[in-house]
Amino acid sequence: MVNAWNRLFKRKHDEVELNAPIDSMACVSVDLELTGLDYKNDSIVSIGAVKMAGSKIMLTNFFYKLVNPKIAFSGPCVTIHGITPSDVCASESIEDVLKEFLAFCGDDVVVGHCVEIDLTFLDRETKKLTGKRFTNPSIDTFTLYEWLRSRHYPISSNKINTASTSLYEIAKHYAIPVTHSHNAIMDAYVTAQLLQRFLHELVNYGVKQIGDLLRIGNPSKGGFSTITSGEFSNF
Description:
Layout: H1 2-13, E1 26-34, E2 44-53, E3 56-68, H2 76-81, H3 85-88, E4 92-93, H4 94-105, E5 109-112, H5 116-130, E6 138-140, H6 141-150, H7 167-173, H8 184-202, H9 210-216
Parallel strand pairs: 1-5, 3-4, 5-6
Antiparallel strand pairs: 1-2, 2-3
Helix pairs in contact: 4-5, 6-8, 7-8
């Protein structure tokens, strides 16, 4: 999976103005809820996304849909996101939802927390629907967090002291309100707020161009690949 994303990474770079300032970056914070983490057999049950312009969160420009996965699901995933089969039995198919989602995203940079697994599912479904790959440039907020944490914040006044992969734990460190109930649109909003905080910190390290941010936040450098199977509920 990592090698696949590395092969796409250069292609993604060609699609954006790498020397443009981060404030000019059009991006969309994305979160999926799934029936499980097996990208060959599991499915998407909801997609949430919110637009950003640089560090500005566009609160009224969002996307949220439940998806009928057309497979049986129960157990741990229901406990995590609270979506039951009865909640989605009358929902739209992934084909219909994905058409709307792809139109919503356009060519924007996709942002997510431990986002590689989400990208894998989106790539799979996009290939089924269009025959093409999902190759939007992408940034993993956990990878950004690890980059900042490795530098121990010598410049910042907000030092990170947690090694957790959890979106909620990191968000709480930044005083970002969390509900502790997984919901794709709410998690997308939390992720957007986390990126907002990180962008202000990254400027202190001279990270001012989109190309630098894409390099530092490359999902294949960390994020989901650092999570063990026992930490499913942590992100």
